[in-house]
């Protein structure tokens, strides 16, 4: 049986595990770029969708863009 080398050294894994367990934040905000992917992008999508819904309601209530 051939013994393969692990993808990462055990010491590096233990070091990363200690780092992430010592941070007292929510799990989805522990990484350095996680605030962008977990907070900023969903807020931008929600904001743009609310804008488009609001514009559609405004256009419908004022009859803008109605085909005759």
Automatic annotation (TrEMBL):
It holds the Pfam family COX7a. GO terms for cellular component: mitochondrial inner membrane. Signal peptide: none annotated. Its main location: mitochondrion. InterPro entries: COX7a. Keywords: Membrane, Mitochondrion, Mitochondrion inner membrane, Transmembrane, Transmembrane helix. The chain crosses the membrane at residues 39-58. It is found in: Mitochondrion inner membrane. The keyword Iron does not apply. It comes from the Eukaryota. PANTHER family: CYTOCHROME C OXIDASE SUBUNIT 7, CYTOCHROME-C OXIDASE_ ELECTRON CARRIER. This is Cytochrome c oxidase subunit VII. It comes from Helianthus annuus. The lineage of its organism: Eukaryota, Viridiplantae, Streptophyta, Embryophyta, Tracheophyta.
């Amino acid at each position: 049986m051939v013994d393969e080398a692990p993808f990462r050294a055990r010491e590096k894994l233990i070091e990363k595990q200690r780092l992430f367990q010592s941070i007292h934040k929510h799990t989805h905000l522990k990484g350095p770029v996680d605030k962008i992917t977990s907070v900023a992008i969903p807020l931008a999508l929600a904001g743009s969708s609310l804008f488009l819904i609001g514009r559609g309601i405004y256009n419908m209530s004022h009859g803008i863009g109605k085909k005759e």
